[in-house]
Design a protein that fits this description.
The complex is a heterodimer of chains A (about 300) and B (about 425).
Chain A lengths: L1 H4 L4 H8 L24 E2 L6 E12 L2 E12 L3 E5 L6 H7 L10 E9 L2 E2 L7 H7 E4 L10 H12 L5 H14 L3 H4 L12 H13 L5 E5 L7 H14 L4 E5 L3 H7 L2 E6 L2 E7 H6 L4 H7 L5
Parallel strand pairs in A: 1-11, 4-9, 4-10, 7-8, 8-9
Antiparallel strand pairs in A: 2-3, 2-5, 5-6, 10-11
Chain B lengths: L3 H48 L4 E10 L2 H4 L7 H6 L3 H9 L8 H8 L6 H11 L7 E7 L2 H9 L11 H13 L2 E5 L1 H5 L12 H32 L4 H13 L4 H15 L7 H25 L3 H10 L3 H29 L3 H5 L20 H9 L5 H34 L1
Antiparallel strand pairs in B: 1-2, 1-3
The chains are: A alpha/beta (about 300), B mainly alpha (about 425).
């Protein structure tokens, strides 16, 4: 629970800072006249030690643009949170990072996306290798309908990470330990994963993702289907994992973003409006739209 | 909206209407199921009541003195003599033992029609196997003649006409009393192939034929159908060509089966020069007929695999093929099996296309391989149902029961397999 207690409640601060924002009529008042300049992001979108270098990224579904000219660096071993109202493109952008959009026929991606200086969308790039390095945890817990052990062991097996049964056992145990699931699962490794609770399933999915030792873990609203207790456990887990992994998390909960992330990126209608240190975004947002969103005026 | 009391009243009234609708709907459902069950009961009662006698055989057991002089035979191992010999004579002689006064030519002819037409062949075969039996007296069980059998089993049944003369009826009654004519479980029906004589006809040939044909159909249609479905669902680009293929597959599912028979005749027999009447060709034709059903149901099964599972596997870095083999196929397998059961059940009951490729031929031998002439259960039933001898009517019904049992066994196996797969995943 350390992650929660160490962070201030950002909404409370904003309301006291802005006496003119009347909370009663706030949800109706939309800053529709605010002009977003394309490709213009306030704050600090770039980094000195980037894991991902993303430049002028545009994504289209058919003819409809979903991401409009976004440039962003994701630093090594940071936790960055993507926030923004529904349909703002944060999930789409996240899925670009390990090419999960490939299976959508109508999806086109422009711009330069690099992982450690290598182009992600290079035609020679092996997507299997990429996804082994950039793992993903999804919104809804989606364990395979197999045993707990087989769920975690699946990735190492297909990538040939363990030659012997004992190696595989070690990987499974370590991953489950890291995901904080070992004590609950060690006696029922052969039980069906689908029989676990939602929170356990999501932690199993995290264990499954880190079993292949990725460098980056992408999390697409990992707690949206979970209750507050399970959410707190996952958040603790993110804090622990951030020591060894780069984590990109999409979330609808601003408290969650404030609790777990180092940096926060605010998306709006396909634009990346503002990126900054999390504490700064929630206390002193530079952009009008960010401010409106985090004070709850829309979204 | 203004008066909350009236709104509650409105809701209550609509509630009544809704419940009434629900009750009516449930009643329709129960009625539909009742009608279906009732029809099924009628069908089964009819088949069983008509067909159970097919499982009963009528036999004539005689003490036959294999007199060489009477048969014009003194060496049973000499084929030339065997060809000339009269094997009917000792049977008539044995019957005359019970009816000494039946000595006229007409009486003898009537006596010879107490046992089945192949009784003399039976004596001949026995003697050829055991030449030393010549001159001895042996107890031999003969199948009764069709007319005798009908009389024994169906006397008084308006559905059957008794073709025995009054004298024969008297004889039969007398022999029944002495236990010479008797009824028993019809093992012949399960151990022999077709015959011109109902008492010698059996279902085994058609059963083996169906088994061989279904084997070919399954081995070809299931893998090809599943592979086609997987390719179309998972790998094929969506363009005009795949749309065109999809429309054609859906249309093929509705093509009358006899067209597939014509196709088989033209392609497999005409073009490839395969033999007629063989299970391989039958199986190929039925496989073509079953393919659309399997492809369509397999595609539906693949589509119903939750995308989240696919994403999960892709997210870990499974390749396309691994996603399909490790996750999509195992999860879709129960659905695919269901489609295959339906397709195979259709194929098992199919007659029309097999008529065209010659599987309607009169085949006595039990097929011993995929390339030996054979017929299948529904065709055998079709042949028997159209035969003149009354004994074939009950055989046709008995054949239907065997077909149903075959079908139930096949489906039970598939359902068991599906349950097993479901438990594993």
């Amino acid at each position: 629970m350390s992650a929660i207690s160490s962070t201030m409640n950002p909404t409370a601060i904003k309301e006291s800072d802005m006496p003119e924002a009347d909370p009663k009529k706030a949800p109706i008042e939309r800053p529709a006249d605010t002009v977003i300049e394309e490709g213009k992001t306030v704050g600090v979108p770039l980094s000195d030690d980037p894991k991902f270098q993303l430049r002028n990224v545009e994504v289209f579904y058919g003819e409809t643009p979903a991401i409009k000219n976004i440039s962003l660096d994701i630093a090594r071993n940071e936790v960055i949170a993507f926030i923004g109202p529904s349909g703002c493109g944060k999930s789409t952008f996240l899925r670009c990072l390990n090419r999960m959009n490939d299976s959508i026929d109508s999806c086109r991606i422009k711009g330069s996306l690099q992982l450690d200086g290598q182009d992600i969308y290079d035609s020679k790039r092996d997507v299997v290798e990429l996804r082994a390095r950039v793992g993903m945890v999804f919104q809804k817990p989606n364990p395979f309908p197999k045993s707990i052990y087989d769920n975690v062991a699946y990735g190492p097996r297909i990538h040939g990470l363990a030659n012997r049964k004992s190696d595989l056992d070690d990987i499974v145990e370590n991953s489950l330990r890291k995901a904080g699931l070992w004590n609950e699962a060690k006696d029922r490794l052969d039980a069906m994963a689908t029989g676990m609770s939602g929170g356990q399933q999501q932690r199993l999915c995290i264990a499954r993702a880190i079993a292949v030792s990725p460098e980056v873990v992408l999390m697409d609203e990992p707690c949206s289907a979970l209750d507050p207790i399970a959410t707190a456990r996952i958040e603790e887990l993110i804090a622990e994992l951030s020591e060894s992994y780069t984590i990109v998390i999409v979330t609808h909960s601003m408290q969650q973003a404030a609790r777990v992330s180092n940096r926060t990126a605010y998306f709006h209608l396909g634009h990346l409006v503002e990126v900054n240190d999390t504490s700064k975004v929630f206390t002193m947002p530079e952009h009008e739209l960010t401010e409106s969103y985090i004070t709850g005026r829309f979204g | 909206m203004t008066n909350p009391g009236s709104q509650a009243e409105l809701v209550r009234r609509s509630l009544k209407r809704r419940y009434r609708k629900e009750r009516r709907f449930r009643f329709y459902g129960i009625a539909a199921i009742s009608i279906a069950l009732f029809s099924l009961v009628i069908l089964f009662t009819d088949i069983v009541s008509k067909g159970y006698t097919g499982f009963i055989k009528t036999t004539v057991t005689l003490e036959v003195h294999l007199d060489g002089e009477l048969m014009y035979l003194n060496d049973a191992s000499d084929p030339e003599q065997v060809a000339m010999a009269d094997f009917q004579a000792p049977i008539i002689k044995a019957l005359q033992g019970y009816f000494p006064q039946a000595t006229s030519r007409a009486d003898k002819r009537e006596l010879s029609r107490m046992t089945g037409s192949y009784a003399s062949n039976q004596v001949r075969d026995l003697l050829m196997e055991n030449p030393d039996w010549l001159g001895s007296t042996r107890t031999i069980e003969f199948p009764a003649h069709d007319t005798v059998s009908v009389y024994v089993k169906h006397a008084g049944d308006p559905g059957y006409s008794i073709r025995l003369t009054e004298q024969q009826q008297r004889w039969t009654d007398e022999l029944l009393g002495k236990g010479v004519v008797d009824t028993g479980f019809n093992d012949v029906f399960f151990t022999s192939g077709d015959s011109r004589e109902p008492s010698n006809a059996g279902i085994l040939g058609a059963l083996i034929g169906s088994l061989l044909t279904m084997g070919i159909t399954l081995v070809i249609a299931f893998p090809v159908g599943v592979a086609a479905a997987v390719y179309l669902e998972e790998f094929a680009p969506s363009n005009r060509l795949t749309d065109f293929i999809e429309v054609n597959i859906n249309n093929l599912a509705a093509v009358p089966s006899i067209i597939f028979g014509l196709l088989g005749l033209a392609v497999f027999i005409g073009l490839f020069g395969m033999p007629r009447s063989v299970p391989v060709v039958g199986g190929l034709v039925l496989a073509l007929m079953t393919l659309p059903t399997i492809i369509i149901s397999s595609r539906a099964a693949i589509k119903s695999v939750p995308p989240s599972i696919r994403e999960a596997a892709e997210g870990i870095g499974a390749s396309k093929m691994q996603v399909v083999l490790h996750h999509v196929l195992p999860l879709a397998m129960p659905g695919m099996l269901t489609g295959s059961i339906i397709g195979m059940a259709q194929a098992l009951g199919e007659t029309a296309p097999l008529l065209l490729i010659g599987m309607v031929a009169f085949i006595v031998e039990i097929p011993d391989g995929f390339f030996s002439s054979a017929t299948v259960l529904p065709v055998q039933i079709f042949i028997w149902a159209g035969s003149a001898e009354q004994g074939f009517v009950e055989l046709a019904s008995a054949g239907i029961m065997v077909l149903l049992a075959f079908l139930i066994t096949m489906n039970a196996f598939a359902i068991w397999l599906r349950k097993r797969l479901e438990r594993r995943w």
